[in-house]
Amino acid sequence: MTTAPVAGDASAEIPQFPHPRAAACPFDPSPELRGLARWGPLTRVRSWGDTTPWVVTSHAEQKALLSDPRLSADFSHPGFPSPVDHSGGEHGATDLSFVGMDDPEHARLRRMVSGAFTIKRIEAMRPVVQQMVDDFITRMLAGPKPADLVQALALPVPSLVISELLGVPYDDHAFFQTNSKVLVSAVATPQERQAAHGNLNGYLDQLLDAKLTEPGDDLLSSLGKQIHAGELTRRQAVAMGVLLLLGGHETTANMITLGTLLLLEHPDQLARVRDTDDPKVIASAVEELLRYLSVVHLGRRRTALEDIEIAGRTIRAGEGVILLGELANRDPSVFPNPDRLDIARDARSHQAFGSGTHHCLGQPLARMELQVVYPTLLRRIPTLRLATDLDQVPFKYDAVIYGVHELPVTWYPFSLRACAAAARPGPPARRRCPRASS
């Protein structure tokens, strides 16, 4: 193992971060990113503003640090790292929400909305989500070919679900999707992000007015009650609403399209998802897709509140830390042959949703939506295929959340011959992707 570069050492070659995925291998971490692991579980990188935060590459160290109260999620710390340019002074839609706070305030605010995302409540929604998915697929089948899976299915499903949970009119989906896209862009200017942030804040603030006057059975109304009770400020309620609206559709939409595309590239795995009636097989497939794709590919960010000794390194108080789930999910000590897609693998220990006190609140909802969408889409359109070459698909190299900007798909006419052809899985896709040298 090579000694990690040290900040402040002029002779040290500190690698840049982040790195876009290689165009030839869009489902894999870039060779440069993989190369960070050669320095060991932790290494320095050079990021925005010439900062040199630590990057954590291994599964064990990431899991330990995400549960360590000596790491802070508070954006206001001077050493808090960012993979995008925040020189305009704002970190985005989550400044006043619990995601950017530490316990006990984080836990207090999180409890106000966590009841809506329990496994029991989410499972009760499954029939409703199933009907939504079927309806959107029916519309897609009735429309022209090729169809853009992003606009026809991947964005509408989670957008409609989170709209109903929050009490947001789905008719406004184009507005909040457009502004959300700016907030998760890695290339938008600080001014563009601030404008999008302001647009969503103003929108949610107006909706909150209505909920305070005429509450309904939704999350915004619940937050309004917390305002009346003096447990929540209006600004906090708006920020939490923006966070839930943004997080409730962006990540899942990208997983739907990227996961479908990955399965189309692995017809043997696709056939197993399409042809099974065992919900455990579907659940296992979803976990493996979450592991393999790791759409939150720029990592989770923290600042050390005090010195932390880990893996032979010392993270000093005030230093930034970026925890790369994309690399943790390819850690061969946890996932043997990690670059192989295997939906039969037990991938439940992946870090796609993070871990510790800040683990993703909406993960039960995301899992359920994916468990419904993948098999339903593949069964109802058994001849589904990509309508262009893979190298023509516009991947989101320019976004904080990885995915595709559009996914043109088509299908053969429904016939016994077409179904028989679709039922014969071809060999698994084999791509020679560049690997980092050891």
UniProtKB/TrEMBL annotation:
The region called Disordered is annotated at: 1-21
Keyword line: Heme, Iron, Metal-binding, Monooxygenase, Oxidoreductase
CDD domains per UniProt: CYP105-like
**Signal peptide range in chain numbering:** none
Pfam families the UniProt entry points to:
p450
Q: Does the keyword Membrane apply?
A: no
**Gene3D superfamilies from the entry?**
Cytochrome P450
Q: Does the keyword Iron apply?
A: yes
Per its UniProt record, what PROSITE patterns does this chain match?
CYTOCHROME_P450
Q: Which GO terms describe its molecular function?
A: heme binding; iron ion binding; monooxygenase activity; oxidoreductase activity, acting on paired donors, with incorporation or reduction of molecular oxygen
Task: Describe the family membership recorded for this protein in Swiss-Prot or TrEMBL.
Answer: Belongs to the cytochrome P450 family.
This chain belongs to the protein called Cytochrome P450
Species of origin reads Streptomyces botrytidirepellens
